[in-house]
């Protein structure tokens, strides 16, 4: 009789464990929620800062919305005249994934730099644009450089540029301004998907059309390429833990769509 009771208790324990496991497995999986940060109608939530003009001045309608697309436009320009611009999203972030589609269109405006042909970028970990100087060309930040092919040469996209910053790449400090990605070249006016994974001041990854093309870490203040004088000298080597996101205008028309962000806890 005692052995039968022991067997019954064991069976009960096993059944209870199986039921418990089943209930746990039936818990709904949390869905990943990407947030759209561009409404496709206007520039709500986005503010321009263009070199030579106050924050908020959308000089010559550089940034416009047409047909649901966010565009860098030079229709009202006669010459570029070093009007480097950045369109800032209203909220700073530090741990997130950002993605969108982009394409270059038309011809570069007169007066643009040769290196700016089919050239734009996503600036992450940006300084507060309200504190930028009137004639500042770029924010201190990390730039995910977007390049289009010229129809002939190899020209990777999703590269890294470092205006006023340095990073560690393959466990070594890199002070050069550009680190090229492993992406292929995208010629013509085709849409290209870019995604960035940002983990505070640790790891940052670039993806082009779903493929990882560049990984680096430890972004921090350092170097030149930003005309702010000695403003940042006291912050040399300080880690970049977060900041604003901006889209760049460098003299070539470019279009953006499906601009989304996922915060990482």
TrEMBL record:
PROSITE patterns cross-referenced by the UniProt entry: PROKAR_LIPOPROTEIN
Origin: domain of life: Bacteria
A molecular function (GO) term: hydrolase activity
Leader sequence segment: none
Sequence ranges assigned to domain 3-keto-alpha-glucoside-1,2-lyase/3-keto-2-hydroxy-glucal hydratase in this UniProt record: 33-261
Protein's name according to its UniProt entry: DUF1080 domain-containing protein
Organism: Seonamhaeicola sediminis
């Amino acid at each position: 009789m005692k052995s039968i009771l022991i067997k019954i208790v064991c069976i009960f324990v096993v059944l209870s464990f199986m039921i418990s496991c089943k209930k746990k497995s039936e818990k709904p999986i949390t869905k990943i929620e990407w947030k759209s940060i561009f409404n496709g109608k206007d520039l709500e939530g986005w503010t321009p800062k263009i070199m030579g003009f106050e924050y908020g001045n959308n000089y010559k309608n550089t940034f416009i919305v047409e047909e649901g697309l966010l565009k860098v436009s030079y229709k009202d320009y006669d010459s570029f005249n070093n009007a480097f611009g950045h369109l800032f999203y209203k909220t700073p972030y530090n741990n997130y994934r950002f993605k969108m589609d982009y394409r270059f269109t038309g011809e570069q405006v007169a007066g643009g730099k040769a290196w700016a042909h089919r050239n734009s970028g996503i600036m992450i970990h940006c300084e507060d644009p309200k504190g930028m100087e009137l004639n500042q060309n770029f924010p201190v930040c990390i730039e995910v450089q977007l390049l289009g092919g010229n129809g002939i040469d190899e020209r990777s996209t999703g590269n890294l540029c470092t205006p006023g910053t340095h990073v560690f790449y393959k466990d070594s400090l890199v002070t050069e301004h550009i680190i090229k990605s492993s992406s292929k070249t995208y010629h013509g006016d085709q849409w290209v998907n870019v995604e960035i994974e940002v983990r505070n001041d640790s790891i940052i990854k670039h993806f082009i059309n779903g493929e990882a093309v560049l990984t680096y870490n430890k972004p921090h203040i350092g170097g030149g390429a930003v005309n702010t004088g000695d403003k940042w000298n006291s912050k040399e080597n300080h880690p970049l833990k977060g900041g604003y996101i901006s889209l760049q205008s460098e003299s070539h028309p470019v279009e953006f769509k499906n601009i989304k962000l996922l915060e990482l806890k």
